[in-house]
């Protein structure tokens, strides 16, 4: 009998839910026992400072990666959209499991939708990508910065402090709270964040047996979508500081990548798309189409849309 694999996780409800899902799927696929090990991160300890001021989403990631490299844990499960685009030395993303819904969700009072919210409505979100696109669709509403876990955020709608909040459908679904969504936002209106809804299952690169074992959770289509979206993000990070949205869809006949760059106030919006025919070298093609679409956006003036993360 081999020992249990140690899967490191943040202690937040969402992290526990997705780590638990992966642990269960892994045991089902391989017969190996998996134990969850709680790791605390800077983003969990400091719950009041806006994320954009404490190093962005990377704060949730580095503690798990340090624990992997130190050999304290064998596996880490990340929300893929929280990973920096630069690869981590010594670590491998051994699997991208089947992707959850990648859309953003509106959770509004009285069952309201984005179109039906009254002028001046207060919508909780601090993400520049969401702010820019909400203001592009509804220049007459107000976006209010918000932090805290999903319960805290939803609670601000229930209490009447806010008219609505925006959260990823995926997170709510993983928490079993998708029934509180009043509108799953059309991805043409609110183009999702690169890799939203996808998980990254990571381990040390010098553990080839584990890399192979984790490969049993891989979904090739989800991997291709994430490669394309993040290749675009990486190419744009060099050229522009505006909010970036990207959404790829893989099917047997068509691979489409759409992307949007907008000014934070939503007055300037650039949207581009490319379609390719999927074939054997899908992951290489996905990489390339991401870079090409980034070049399209830059040629259309993406670098002049300056974002500010106030
Ligand atoms: N920004 C934080 C974050 N990172 C991952 C998710 C859940 C959605 C996902 O797994 O992509 C969330 C919450 C949200 O955006 O609503």
UniProtKB/TrEMBL annotation:
Keywords: Porphyrin biosynthesis, Transferase
E.C. designation(s): 2.5.1.61
Domain Porphobilinogen deaminase N-terminal, first and last residues per copy: 5-210
InterPro entries in UniProt: HemC, Porphobilin_deaminase_cofac_BS, Porphobilin_deaminase_N, Porphobilinogen_deaminase_C, Porphobilinogen_deaminase_C_sf
Positions of the Porphobilinogen deaminase C-terminal domain: 225-298
PROSITE patterns per record: PORPHOBILINOGEN_DEAM (PS00533)
Cofactor, how bound (note): Binds 1 dipyrromethane group covalently.
Cofactor: dipyrromethane
Keyword ATP-binding: no
Enzyme class: transferase
Top-level taxon of origin: Bacteria
UniProt-listed Gene3D superfamilies: Periplasmic binding protein-like II (3.40.190.10), Porphobilinogen deaminase, C-terminal domain (3.30.160.40)
Record-listed S-(dipyrrolylmethanemethyl)cysteine modification sites: 240
Key word Nucleus present: no
PANTHER family noted in UniProt: PORPHOBILINOGEN DEAMINASE
HAMAP family: Porphobil_deam
Misc. remarks from the entry: The porphobilinogen subunits are added to the dipyrromethane group.
Free-text function comment from the UniProt entry: Tetrapolymerization of the monopyrrole PBG into the hydroxymethylbilane pre-uroporphyrinogen in several discrete steps.
Name of this protein: Porphobilinogen deaminase
Species of origin: Cryptosporangium japonicum
């Amino acid at each position: 009998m081999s020992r249990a694999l140690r899967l490191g996780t943040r202690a937040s409800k969402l992290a526990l839910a997705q780590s638990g899902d992966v642990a269960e799927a892994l045991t089902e696929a391989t017969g190996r026992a998996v134990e969850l090990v709680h790791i605390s991160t800077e983003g969990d300890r400091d719950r009041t400072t806006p994320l954009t001021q404490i190093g962005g989403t990377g704060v949730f990631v580095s503690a798990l990666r340090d624990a992997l490299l130190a050999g304290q844990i064998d596996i880490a499960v990340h929300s893929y959209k929280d990973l920096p685009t630069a690869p981590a030395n010594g670590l491998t993303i051994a699997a991208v499991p089947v992707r959850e819904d990648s859309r953003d969700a509106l959770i509004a009072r009285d069952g309201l939708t984005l179109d039906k919210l009254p002028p001046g409505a207060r919508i909780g979100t601090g993400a520049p990508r969401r702010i820019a696109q909400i203001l592009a669709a509804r220049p007459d509403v107000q976006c209010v910065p918000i932090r805290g876990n999903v319960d805290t955020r939803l609670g601000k709608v229930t209490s009447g402090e806010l008219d609505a909040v925006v959260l990823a459908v995926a997170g709510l679904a993983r928490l079993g709270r998708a029934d509180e969504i009043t509108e799953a936002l059309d991805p043409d209106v609110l183009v999702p964040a690169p890799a939203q809804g996808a998980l990254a299952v990571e381990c040390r690169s010098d553990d080839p047996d584990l890399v192979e074992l984790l490969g049993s959770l891989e979904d090739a289509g989800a991997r291709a979508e994430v490669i394309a979206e993040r290749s675009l993000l990486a190419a744009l990070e060099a050229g522009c500081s505006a909010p970036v949205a990207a959404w790829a869809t893989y099917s047997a006949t068509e691979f489409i990548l759409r992307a949007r760059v907008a000014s934070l106030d939503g007055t300037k919006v650039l949207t581009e798309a490319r379609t390719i025919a999927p074939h054997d070298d899908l992951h290489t093609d996905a990489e390339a189409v991401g870079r090409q679409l980034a070049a399209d956006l830059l040629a259309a003036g993406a670098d002049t849309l300056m974002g500010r993360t106030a």
